[in-house]
Amino acid sequence: MSTTAQSGSAVMSLAPSTHLRRRNLIQLVTTRLMALATVISVLVTVGIVLSLLPTTFRLLREITTQVFGTVWAPLFEPSQYGMAPLLVGTFIIVLIAMLIAIPIGLAAAIFLSDYATFNLRRIVKPILEILAGIPTVVLGLFGLYVVNPEFVEKYWPIGEPLAYTALGAGLMTGILIIPIVASVADDALSSVPRAMREAAYALGATRREVATKVVLNAGLSGVVAALILAFSRAFGETTIALMVAGSYAKLSANPGDPMQTMASFIGFAGIGDAEVGSSAYNTIFLVGTVLFTVTLILNILGNRFISRFREVYE
Amino acid sequence: MATTSTSLQSRVSVNRRIKDNSFTTFLSISIVASLAFIFYIIYRLYNNAGYLLSWDLIRFFPSYDIDTAGFQAPIMGSIWVVGFASLFAIPIGVMTALYLEEFAGKRNRFTALIELNIQNLAGVPAVVFGLIGLAFIARGPLSWGFTVGSAAIVLAMLILPVIIIVTREAIRAVPPSYKEGALALGATQWQAVSKLVIPSAIPGTATGTILAVSRAMGESAPLLLLGALSFVTFNPTGLDSGFTILPLAIFKYAGDSREEYQVLASAGSLILLAILFAMNLFAILLRDFTLRKRNV
Question: What does the protein in this record do (chain B) (predicted)?
């Protein structure tokens, strides 16, 4: 190449040909375009923060310490802004959901990583994916029409459960997050090195002992991540809580009662097409800020555990 | 072989064997229960509303008269909103993934920040996206109102991080030797990526994207805030058109205490499940097919 170029031929000159210049230009333009697209995801986050904070601070300056009260009635006159009922409602529903999802989700993960054959895995994984694909509105409908009247109303021993119950919402949210626990924990358990299992088997451990004492311990940070991320998902679930637990922010410790969660309040108050600047409008942003902050912290924590796990085994 | 394993097993104490067997039973029951739940939910919905299933249910528009009530407007609304959301989110998501995997160079502070941001964006509760939609898009600076366009932007933001994550995984699964070969022959980075990496990553990207889009199809919470719960009896005509979506049509009927509306809600759920299962099945088959092709 270089020798022909030295011979003085115009076509073979060392200066880049138009073709070469064109492809370099394409490279430059596409790279810039892609960098621009990358910025959009950051803009979305910035947008979320900017949409939440100003309204939240404006309202907080107005109501100050009222948020620590025990009555939540921002849509009534006079408005009351005690967040305790929402916090308790959210906590109870998430707790019930975790009580369902931890055993079943972890069982599914252990089954997939240590018990299932390759072919069984190919059947069980899609089942979990289909479960994950059931929309929340359908789970809510099932909770409202089936779980509440046929199970909670009939068998819950405390009080007299009516059409809306936190228990029903918690159970349905639990089913929603089973696939999250299962898939994140399965990723963690499946990447525990085979040698650790074999060493335990060689020492005479049974399959259960290998799975629960060796693999589960070795993959613990991944399992913790699974639980944190599932918790976060349950925490922000709106539709199920709204349909099954109702929209009455009752401060109660009895899961048979109706309750409102932070997320379901946003959904409920948002339906009414609140006027910009009205009390209802401002309040959903206040609650949104709390919801966003808590889930953000949980997610950062969860992802930290995942990356710690990856560093060790991958 | 069989005798060896029994003699080995007999050396394990009875107590441990019982524990092991009951643990296996517990695991199996958990899996079977999950599967049984899926069937039970479908069975109950079908039991409640199976007799309503007919093409009329898809053809008719929402109505207060159960005999002529159907889901055409919500189904079309869902298709419009999710269609435009995909149109916005997929190109941006794929470009972001390509940039992060192929063009951003070594991990630096900028890419680390973007990665952290995408991870956390994927975990933001869906209803919060409704809040940004309400503050900036439907009202506020953009003031686009409760329209197909507003809703599509909100759902696009919701699925963007998911699309980025699945596309990056698909790109990472392409053997680097493909690209390195092209680069060694003098191709630019973009030529190598566009001619070799992108085609090989398409099946994986498609699988993940279909799953993300089906999630958007079933999502109800953020659009509660954007007026999608209103009683709409017309199909969308454009981005400025009012709309409702299938999940929220179900939500609306479900909240009505009259039994015939509850039946309609169940019927709508069966339609929604059918659409989502079809999308999921397609995605799973596509992945299975690609995996098998790659293994051969």
Answer: Part of the binding-protein-dependent transport system for phosphate; probably responsible for the translocation of the substrate across the membrane.
